[in-house]
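Supplementary Methods. Inverse-folding protocol.

Structures were first reduced to a discrete structure-token string of length 469. This string, shown here, constituted the complete conditioning input.
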């Protein structure tokens, strides 16, 4: 029957009063539409309609529940805003709506179509097809419905993310940072904007939140923050504790976080990180840790005797890392740290590394760049903050595997893995969850910011199953 009509009216495309349609660019492969020739512009019923991008790049993010009978399926969409349109709905109320343009697909017919966005969840049809969408070659047959192929909402329930997601949509990305203007943030912002996304920097320390089960939110300056598609945590060491809480809150809200709160905490705690790495047989310098002061000698012996490296657990940029050349020096250093109630690690000194280490930048399951950092003369710490210099290097397969595995076992999607090249293979020193981009981009000439944004694009999900994760 359906085929019949389409065949007999070769040049004409027939539409019944209700039809199944798709908005492929919005990630909506099936939606039931009512053809309403009484309306001028087509309309899409959406909730949580939020503009973003400002005047420079006006976008709107909204949520569609394609299946009116299953509100647990939420599709997050975003599109460029063409403008606003005042629409008087059938009940006589005037409403100013966002106007967007996207491909509308019915059967094999596909055409760019304008839609207004409106929040009327009570409507049985999530889409109205108005006069302006009806092309001269189309014919509306008001006495019939579903002339075109019937689709099914099941695609949302059993559909895999990949098949539902449109290739790319403008994302609203938040960077949690105290320093929006630093090199790393600027590199990611530039890359994201070039890819059509919108980035907002959020000052971590000024976020606050109410913790409850029904409506998790993060607030900022008196208002809840908008819905982000992705959060990039750039949490400084002084902000670890509070930053983790904020990231966790975003995770609770279902926002894709480039690195999760638990992973950030796990890698920041050097003791925990070393234990996890050891558990997974990842090479590292012999490391010891103790709490009471009774067995200083034992600790030094445990790691193979002097020289040893003593590290404050919360050290970064090499600031809490000390080399003790002799047993005596090691013992007095350990006693001194203890006297300050500091937590620290004692580590075998990997001599053959002689003031150099390598940093492998891992994104997902790939090493996207590697540099070697060399300490300045007379210094064993190769941190760039300690005056070390960086140059691009080739890494071995073993080193690459080690870095990827270290990031994976610490559950970091993005990580800077620091490795010492020792006589017995790669030894992981630490895994950084907010690795800087400047040193590695400048030394390798690679656009690491762009690789991070690409990873986000590939991992932001636009389909949500509320309460059915
Ligand atoms: P931080 O977090 O402060 O950067 P690291 O553990 O990364 O602390 O150590 C800083 C630097 O000191 C390293 O980049 C490396 O050059 C040097 N270093 C650290 N541990 C050792 C070790 N066990 N053997 C040799 N050099 C080391
Ligand atoms: Mg380091």
């Amino acid at each position: 029957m359906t085929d019949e009509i389409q065949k007999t009216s070769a040049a004409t495309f027939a539409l019944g009063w209700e039809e199944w349609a798709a908005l492929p660019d919005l990630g909506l492969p099936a939606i039931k539409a009512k053809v309403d020739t009484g309306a001028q512009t087509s309309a899409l019923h959406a909730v949580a309609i939020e503009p973003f991008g400002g005047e420079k790049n006006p976008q709107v993010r909204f949520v569609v529940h394609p299946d009116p009978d299953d509100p647990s399926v939420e599709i997050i969409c975003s599109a460029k805003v063409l403008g606003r349109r005042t629409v008087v709905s059938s009940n006589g109320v005037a409403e100013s709506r966002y106007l967007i343009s996207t491909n509308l697909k019915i059967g094999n017919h596909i055409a760019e179509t304008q839609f207004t966005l409106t929040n009327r969840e009570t409507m049985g049809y999530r889409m109205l097809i108005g006069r302006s969408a009806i092309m001269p070659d189309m014919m509306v047959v008001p006495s019939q419905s579903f002339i075109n192929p019937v689709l099914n909402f099941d695609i949302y329930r059993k559909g895999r993310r990949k098949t539902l997601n449109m290739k790319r949509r403008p994302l609203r990305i938040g960077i949690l940072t105290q320093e929006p203007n630093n090199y790393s943030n600027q590199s990611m912002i530039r890359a994201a904007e070039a890819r059509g996304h919108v980035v907002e920097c959020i000052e971590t320390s000024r976020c606050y939140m109410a913790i409850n089960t029904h409506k998790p939110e993060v607030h900022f300056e008196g208002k809840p923050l908008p819905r982000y598609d992705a959060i990039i945590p750039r949490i400084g060491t002084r902000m670890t504790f509070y930053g983790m809480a904020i990231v966790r809150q975003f995770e609770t809200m279902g926002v894709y976080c480039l690195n999760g709160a638990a992973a950030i905490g796990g890698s920041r705690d050097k003791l925990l990180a070393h234990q996890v790495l050891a558990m997974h047989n990842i090479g590292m310098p012999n490391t010891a840790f103790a709490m009471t002061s009774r067995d200083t000698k034992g600790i030094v012996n445990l790691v193979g005797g002097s020289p040893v490296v003593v590290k404050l657990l919360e050290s970064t940029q090499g600031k809490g890392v000390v080399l003790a050349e002799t047993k005596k020096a090691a013992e007095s250093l350990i006693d001194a740290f203890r006297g300050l109630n500091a937590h620290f690690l004692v580590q075998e000194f990997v001599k053959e590394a002689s003031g150099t280490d390598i940093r492998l930048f891992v994104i997902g399951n790939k090493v996207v760049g590697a540099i070697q950092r060399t300490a300045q003369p007379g210094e064993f710490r190769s941190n760039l903050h300690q005056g070390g210099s960086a140059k691009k290097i080739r890494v071995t397969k073993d080193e690459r595997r080690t870095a990827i595995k270290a990031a994976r076992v610490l559950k970091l999607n993005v990580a800077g893995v620091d490795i010492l090249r020792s006589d017995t293979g790669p030894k992981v020193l630490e895994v950084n969850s907010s690795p800087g981009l400047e040193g590695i981009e400048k030394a390798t000439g690679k656009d690491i910011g762009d690789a991070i944004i690409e990873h986000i694009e590939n991992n932001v999900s636009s389909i949500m199953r509320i309460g059915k994760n």
